[in-house]
Amino acid sequence: MMDKTFDPAAVEARIAAEWEEAQAFRAGRPDRAGAEPYSIMIPPPNVTGSLHMGHALNNTLQDVLARFERLRGKDVLWQPGTDHAGIATQMVVERRLMEQQQPDRRSLGRPEFVRRVWEWKAESGGTIVNQLKRLGASCDWSRERFTMDEGLSKAVLKVFVDLHAQGLIYRDKRLVNWDPKFQTAISDLEVQQVEVKGHLWHFAYPVVDEAGTETGETITVATTRPETMLGDTAVAVHPEDERYRALVGKRLRLPLVGRLIPIVADEYSDPEKGTGAVKITPAHDFNDFEVGRRHGLAQINILDEEARISLDGNADFLDGTSPEPEALALHGLDRFEARAKVVALMEERGRLVTIEPNTHAVPHGDRSGVVIEPYLTDQWYVNVKPLAERALQAVRDGRTRFVPETYEKTYFQWLENIEPWCISRQLWWGHQIPAWYDADGNCFVASSEEEALAQAAAKHGRPVTLRRDEDVLDTWFSSGLWPFSTLGWPEQTPELARYYPTSALVTGFDIIFFWVARMMMLGLHALDEVPFRTIYIHALVRDEKGAKMSKSKGNVVDPLDLVDRYGADALRFTLAAMAAQGRDIKLSVQRVEGYRNFATKLWNAARFAEMNGCRLDPAFAPGSVTQTLNAWALGEAARAVAEVTGAIEAYRFNDAANAAYRFVWNVFCDWYLELAKPVLQGEDGPAKEETRRTIAFIIDQICVLLHPFMPFLTEELWATKAREAGLTRPLLALAAWPDLGGLAKPEAEAEIGWVVDLVSEIRSARSETNVPAGAQIPLVLVAPGEAVRERLSRWGDTVRRLGRIASIETVETSPRNAVQLIVRGEVAALPLEGVVDLAAEVARLKKEDAKLDGEIGKIDAKLGNADFLARAPEEVVEEQRERRDAAIARREKVRDALTRLQG
């Protein structure tokens, strides 16, 4: 006997163990040796990470695909693994050392610190993997990889050495995003722009003549970072700005420093902003760096690695000038302390013109929380232009496609404007750059120290001592190789031959640049083949009001809390059902609870079937049923299978989930079982036996249909139903996707569909015209055709029972004062005189219609206001759009009701 309720907490761990014991998710199973391969690579979560709602969405959608294709008989590899996450992991371990009052990283030294990181990884680095298993992820866990595994490290070495040999990797002095707390370059992805209330300081720079004597004329420049003026090497004005045209080519004396700097004409300067003149500090601003390159300006770095002023011995800063003693006294000060001193000094000298309040975006490190500096350092770069060309062409040619297609624009825009990629990080945790230096600074790039020593010996004609580059690679470099390094490349493994290129990639739009594009570039370069055929881009999971989840807002929803409360299946189904292409998900706990109720509804239907003797029969032939009701139900099941199949194939996860939901809840539970009750409760005979077998068969098909979305519930039901029938069969995870072709019976659909539509219309009309729930009302059919009369003779009792109909008559003309119903071209009516006040109902509905018109008009005015759209938070705008949609939908219902009443 089935349990009264389905308890996810009691079932999930047991079923997960059964999957593992059966090795259900292993790629390359002997029974699928000849099957078509299907491969999908997990976006490797950080080894420091724990499951958040974005992971839950991303991995649910991947699992839907993996389970669906496995059920379709393919040899599925869903490759799992984690990323070493350089800066995040180093930060976790450094914090741990501090909390345990142990020596810090530098006191320990590199080898010991790295050993401690590996130790931490072994202890707690697998947290997120176990959480993914709780979600039901059907990865081939036997193949789990880590971006610093020996095999993956070998791939990293080969790609680096090859790209360097081809001249595509090189060392250069350029500006980077510098984190002064961690003292490393970081990627754009690790930079957060934070709105800060600051100031705009206006300084007057004196113009000098050819001899360097001040002329009395000045140019006023405005800056949010006064301390960087110590590194100014020019002032730029727009070439068409009449105010400064005569000054272009002349020089200024940089206050406090004394250095003479040119006035250059450059379109970067905006005549409409500020004074139209901008100070140029190439070593401390990305835009200024480009201006400096265009005009051959010096790059003067006035900060050290901790963002303190560094002037002593700075030959570039001195540049043969004699700075004021007060300026030299700034040496060693923190940048913000120096800022205040510079402003005070400029004011003392009469060079401070004005100070304006100014709110502007300031870059902060997403992990350190400190202000990021544009910083001039020697770093390793990849010239990605030639790689980007191939990656662009692959998408243009259709070898790889984006779903939704609109994301192609994002991809194209970034690759078409791509800059050199800074791949070095000043960390200890990561893939150490395979470069060694001799005493003269000559660099030798090789796969091993032995090879580097051999290169150096060949150059010098004798053995020499080498020092290894201390930097490590950006983690995006190794994760960019993920689709093929996990398959054993650079070895030509059987897995590489079978599963590369992969079938699909599922990821978020925020890493199209940082990960997707890099995998495309590196896959094409290393293997001359795209890494995946399809890239499905999903949107964000927001809170129920549409706001982005963040710890600071306190609106973060923990997916594991929802799993604990409602089960993994309910959360998974919620995420899939809401994953409309290109639209963010507004997650409400009520939706998750609703889909938990959906699971309960199916469980109760299965219990109802059990109590009514509906048992699986291996000999059941669905195509041979004789009862119209059963033929209709099987045809509806076939239609649902076709809809779900087509939607998953098209990456319309919400349409797939909703098609399954509609069939299970509306068609099977609400209609088929309800219409079958008289048969099940009637006398034994062929009709009853066929109905029982049909119900059992459809429950089995529902298990398979829902399995990609709700694997735990369906696996449990699958096993339960087999036990009831005394059958032994493999796990549902390894079963076959339903093949219900040929089961559609138009005659059965015409008959049962008419009954369903008629009862539905009666119920809608009752609701819309405020008929009391318990009232029995008459129904008339207006001049019905012969087919309708015959249906009524067979289903009249059912219509009376389900529609709460007192009597059914047939008439030649529609009665007055009746609600009109149009059902599949036939006219029916509900004479409601005496039951409801029809005139009052018409008046009420007209009043509601006018009110809705006004509400829609107000919302349209708001949404048509550019100022409102610019100022209102994103979630407020979205709420207005939803209110408008809801009002329009309600107005349609009101107008339908009016049409019925006035018909």
From TrEMBL:
This is Valine--tRNA ligase. The gene is valS. ATP binds at residue 551. ValRS has two distinct active sites: one for aminoacylation and one for editing. The misactivated threonine is translocated from the active site to the editing site. Catalyzes the attachment of valine to tRNA(Val). As ValRS can inadvertently accommodate and process structurally similar amino acids such as threonine, to avoid such errors, it has a 'posttransfer' editing activity that hydrolyzes mischarged Thr-tRNA(Val) in a tRNA-dependent manner. Keywords: Aminoacyl-tRNA synthetase, ATP-binding, Coiled coil, Cytoplasm, Ligase, Nucleotide-binding, Protein biosynthesis. It is found in: Cytoplasm. The keyword Glycoprotein does not apply. Its EC number is 6.1.1.9. Residues 837-902 form the Valyl-tRNA synthetase tRNA-binding arm domain. The lineage of its organism: Bacteria, Pseudomonadati, Pseudomonadota, Alphaproteobacteria, Hyphomicrobiales. It comes from Methylobacterium indicum. Belongs to the class-I aminoacyl-tRNA synthetase family. ValS type 1 subfamily. It comes from the Bacteria.
